[in-house]
Specification:
This is Response regulator transcription factor. It contains 10 helices and 5 strands; from the N terminus they run βαβαβαβαβαααααα. It has about 220 residues and is an alpha/beta fold. It has a 5-stranded parallel sheet with strand order 2-1-3-4-5, with helices on both faces.
Length: about 220
Amino acid sequence: MERVLIADDHPLVRDGLRTVISVAFDRCEQFEASSLAEAIEIVEREGDFDLVLLDLNMPGTTGFGGLAAMRERFPSVPVVIVSAAEERGLVRGALAAGAAGFLPKSLRRGAIVDALKLILAGDIYVPPFAEALYDEDKEEADIRRRIDSLTPQQRVVLGLVVVGKLNKQIAYDLDVSMTTVKAHVSAILSKLNVFSRTQAVILANRVHFTANPVVPPHH
Protein backbone atom coordinates (compact mmCIF):
# COMPACT_ATOMS: atom_id res chain seq x y z
CA MET A 1 0.00 0.00 0.00
CA GLU A 2 1.51 3.29 -1.11
CA ARG A 3 -1.18 5.91 -0.50
CA VAL A 4 -4.10 5.95 1.89
CA LEU A 5 -6.61 8.60 2.93
CA ILE A 6 -8.00 8.47 6.47
CA ALA A 7 -11.25 10.44 6.64
CA ASP A 8 -12.60 10.81 10.18
CA ASP A 9 -13.62 13.84 12.22
CA HIS A 10 -12.03 12.45 15.42
CA PRO A 11 -8.27 13.20 15.63
CA LEU A 12 -7.79 10.27 18.05
CA VAL A 13 -9.23 7.79 15.54
CA ARG A 14 -7.08 9.21 12.76
CA ASP A 15 -3.98 8.97 14.97
CA GLY A 16 -4.78 5.37 15.87
CA LEU A 17 -5.27 4.31 12.26
CA ARG A 18 -2.20 6.25 11.13
CA THR A 19 -0.05 4.43 13.71
CA VAL A 20 -1.38 1.01 12.69
CA ILE A 21 -0.75 1.73 9.01
CA SER A 22 2.74 3.20 9.61
CA VAL A 23 3.85 0.07 11.44
CA ALA A 24 2.31 -2.43 9.01
CA PHE A 25 2.93 -0.69 5.68
CA ASP A 26 6.41 0.69 5.27
CA ARG A 27 6.76 3.96 3.35
CA CYS A 28 3.00 4.38 2.92
CA GLU A 29 2.04 8.00 2.22
CA GLN A 30 -0.91 8.96 4.42
CA PHE A 31 -3.41 11.78 3.99
CA GLU A 32 -6.07 12.89 6.46
CA ALA A 33 -9.46 14.56 6.15
CA SER A 34 -11.92 15.62 8.86
CA SER A 35 -14.98 16.08 6.62
CA LEU A 36 -16.44 14.58 3.45
CA ALA A 37 -15.78 17.77 1.44
CA GLU A 38 -12.13 17.69 2.51
CA ALA A 39 -11.84 13.99 1.60
CA ILE A 40 -13.27 14.59 -1.89
CA GLU A 41 -11.00 17.60 -2.37
CA ILE A 42 -7.88 15.56 -1.43
CA VAL A 43 -8.69 12.67 -3.79
CA GLU A 44 -9.44 15.13 -6.62
CA ARG A 45 -6.17 16.97 -5.98
CA GLU A 46 -3.88 14.01 -5.31
CA GLY A 47 -5.25 11.48 -7.79
CA ASP A 48 -5.25 7.75 -7.16
CA PHE A 49 -5.35 6.23 -3.70
CA ASP A 50 -4.92 2.56 -2.81
CA LEU A 51 -7.55 2.93 -0.09
CA VAL A 52 -9.88 5.47 1.49
CA LEU A 53 -10.89 4.76 5.10
CA LEU A 54 -14.15 6.64 5.55
CA ASP A 55 -15.91 7.22 8.85
CA LEU A 56 -19.62 6.43 8.59
CA ASN A 57 -20.73 9.55 10.46
CA MET A 58 -18.80 12.62 9.43
CA PRO A 59 -19.57 16.30 8.93
CA GLY A 60 -21.17 16.79 5.53
CA THR A 61 -22.77 13.37 5.29
CA THR A 62 -25.44 11.15 6.81
CA GLY A 63 -25.88 7.40 6.47
CA PHE A 64 -24.18 6.07 3.35
CA GLY A 65 -24.26 9.45 1.60
CA GLY A 66 -20.49 9.90 1.92
CA LEU A 67 -19.79 6.43 0.58
CA ALA A 68 -22.19 6.99 -2.33
CA ALA A 69 -20.53 10.34 -3.16
CA MET A 70 -17.03 8.80 -3.11
CA ARG A 71 -18.09 5.78 -5.21
CA GLU A 72 -19.77 8.02 -7.77
CA ARG A 73 -16.83 10.41 -8.14
CA PHE A 74 -13.98 7.90 -7.78
CA PRO A 75 -15.31 4.47 -8.84
CA SER A 76 -11.83 2.90 -9.02
CA VAL A 77 -10.81 3.84 -5.45
CA PRO A 78 -11.69 1.19 -2.82
CA VAL A 79 -13.60 2.84 0.05
CA VAL A 80 -13.67 1.11 3.43
CA ILE A 81 -16.29 2.16 5.96
CA VAL A 82 -14.98 2.66 9.50
CA SER A 83 -17.62 2.72 12.23
CA ALA A 84 -18.05 2.57 15.98
CA ALA A 85 -21.49 0.99 15.45
CA GLU A 86 -21.53 -2.79 15.14
CA GLU A 87 -24.85 -3.56 13.54
CA ARG A 88 -25.40 -6.21 10.89
CA GLY A 89 -27.79 -3.93 9.03
CA LEU A 90 -25.07 -1.29 8.67
CA VAL A 91 -22.62 -3.84 7.26
CA ARG A 92 -25.25 -5.03 4.77
CA GLY A 93 -26.00 -1.43 3.76
CA ALA A 94 -22.31 -0.51 3.37
CA LEU A 95 -21.55 -3.51 1.15
CA ALA A 96 -24.72 -2.94 -0.90
CA ALA A 97 -23.60 0.68 -1.44
CA GLY A 98 -20.26 -0.51 -2.81
CA ALA A 99 -17.90 -0.45 0.19
CA ALA A 100 -14.79 -2.62 -0.08
CA GLY A 101 -15.18 -3.55 3.58
CA PHE A 102 -16.53 -2.57 6.97
CA LEU A 103 -14.05 -1.95 9.80
CA PRO A 104 -15.47 -1.74 13.33
CA LYS A 105 -13.41 0.69 15.45
CA SER A 106 -13.25 -2.00 18.15
CA LEU A 107 -11.01 -4.26 16.00
CA ARG A 108 -7.59 -5.14 17.39
CA ARG A 109 -4.59 -3.69 15.54
CA GLY A 110 -3.58 -7.03 14.07
CA ALA A 111 -7.12 -7.61 12.79
CA ILE A 112 -7.18 -4.15 11.17
CA VAL A 113 -3.93 -4.92 9.33
CA ASP A 114 -5.26 -8.32 8.17
CA ALA A 115 -8.48 -6.66 6.97
CA LEU A 116 -6.59 -3.99 5.01
CA LYS A 117 -4.32 -6.59 3.38
CA LEU A 118 -7.38 -8.62 2.38
CA ILE A 119 -8.99 -5.55 0.77
CA LEU A 120 -5.76 -4.59 -1.02
CA ALA A 121 -5.70 -8.12 -2.48
CA GLY A 122 -9.07 -7.35 -4.06
CA ASP A 123 -11.30 -9.09 -1.55
CA ILE A 124 -14.08 -7.64 0.60
CA TYR A 125 -13.63 -7.53 4.37
CA VAL A 126 -16.65 -8.45 6.48
CA PRO A 127 -16.31 -8.31 10.30
CA PRO A 128 -16.77 -11.64 12.10
CA PHE A 129 -20.12 -10.64 13.64
CA ALA A 130 -21.60 -10.18 10.12
CA GLU A 131 -19.98 -13.03 8.19
CA ALA A 132 -23.01 -15.32 8.32
CA LEU A 133 -25.13 -12.46 7.01
CA TYR A 134 -22.72 -11.86 4.11
CA ASP A 135 -22.72 -15.56 3.17
CA GLU A 136 -26.52 -15.44 3.20
CA ASP A 137 -26.50 -12.40 0.90
CA LYS A 138 -24.14 -14.15 -1.51
CA GLU A 139 -26.37 -17.24 -1.55
CA GLU A 140 -29.45 -15.15 -2.25
CA ALA A 141 -27.64 -13.32 -5.06
CA ASP A 142 -26.74 -16.71 -6.53
CA ILE A 143 -30.40 -17.86 -6.37
CA ARG A 144 -31.49 -14.65 -8.11
CA ARG A 145 -28.91 -15.23 -10.86
CA ARG A 146 -30.28 -18.73 -11.42
CA ILE A 147 -33.87 -17.47 -11.56
CA ASP A 148 -32.78 -14.71 -13.98
CA SER A 149 -31.55 -17.42 -16.36
CA LEU A 150 -35.12 -18.68 -16.84
CA THR A 151 -37.05 -17.76 -19.97
CA PRO A 152 -40.18 -15.59 -19.49
CA GLN A 153 -42.41 -18.67 -19.95
CA GLN A 154 -40.36 -20.67 -17.41
CA ARG A 155 -40.71 -17.81 -14.93
CA VAL A 156 -44.49 -17.94 -15.34
CA VAL A 157 -44.48 -21.71 -14.78
CA LEU A 158 -42.23 -21.33 -11.70
CA GLY A 159 -44.65 -18.72 -10.34
CA LEU A 160 -47.52 -21.20 -10.69
CA VAL A 161 -45.48 -23.99 -9.08
CA VAL A 162 -44.71 -21.63 -6.17
CA VAL A 163 -48.42 -21.02 -5.53
CA GLY A 164 -48.98 -24.78 -5.42
CA LYS A 165 -50.48 -25.52 -8.82
CA LEU A 166 -50.11 -29.01 -10.27
CA ASN A 167 -48.94 -29.66 -13.85
CA LYS A 168 -52.52 -30.35 -14.93
CA GLN A 169 -53.70 -26.97 -13.57
CA ILE A 170 -50.69 -25.16 -15.07
CA ALA A 171 -51.44 -26.73 -18.49
CA TYR A 172 -55.03 -25.54 -18.21
CA ASP A 173 -54.08 -22.02 -17.05
CA LEU A 174 -51.54 -21.52 -19.83
CA ASP A 175 -53.51 -23.40 -22.47
CA VAL A 176 -50.55 -25.68 -23.28
CA SER A 177 -50.07 -29.44 -23.26
CA MET A 178 -48.98 -31.45 -20.22
CA THR A 179 -45.83 -32.41 -22.15
CA THR A 180 -44.94 -28.73 -22.54
CA VAL A 181 -45.47 -28.07 -18.82
CA LYS A 182 -43.31 -31.08 -17.88
CA ALA A 183 -40.56 -29.85 -20.22
CA HIS A 184 -40.71 -26.39 -18.59
CA VAL A 185 -40.61 -27.84 -15.08
CA SER A 186 -37.60 -30.06 -15.98
CA ALA A 187 -35.78 -27.05 -17.43
CA ILE A 188 -36.57 -24.98 -14.31
CA LEU A 189 -35.24 -27.69 -11.96
CA SER A 190 -32.10 -28.00 -14.08
CA LYS A 191 -31.42 -24.23 -14.19
CA LEU A 192 -32.10 -23.82 -10.47
CA ASN A 193 -29.87 -26.84 -9.81
CA VAL A 194 -32.49 -28.63 -7.67
CA PHE A 195 -34.06 -32.08 -7.84
CA SER A 196 -37.67 -31.46 -6.88
CA ARG A 197 -40.49 -28.96 -7.16
CA THR A 198 -40.39 -28.53 -3.37
CA GLN A 199 -36.73 -27.45 -3.49
CA ALA A 200 -37.52 -25.05 -6.34
CA VAL A 201 -40.31 -23.50 -4.24
CA ILE A 202 -37.99 -23.15 -1.21
CA LEU A 203 -35.36 -21.33 -3.32
CA ALA A 204 -37.96 -19.08 -4.94
CA ASN A 205 -39.44 -18.18 -1.55
CA ARG A 206 -36.01 -17.35 -0.12
CA VAL A 207 -35.71 -14.46 -2.57
CA HIS A 208 -39.45 -13.65 -2.48
CA PHE A 209 -39.87 -14.53 -6.14
CA THR A 210 -43.24 -13.78 -7.71
CA ALA A 211 -44.00 -14.13 -11.40
CA ASN A 212 -46.32 -11.80 -13.24
CA PRO A 213 -49.88 -12.98 -12.82
CA VAL A 214 -51.12 -15.12 -15.68
CA VAL A 215 -54.10 -14.00 -17.64
CA PRO A 216 -55.70 -17.33 -18.59
CA PRO A 217 -56.65 -17.62 -22.23
CA HIS A 218 -60.32 -18.22 -23.03
CA HIS A 219 -60.99 -21.91 -23.41
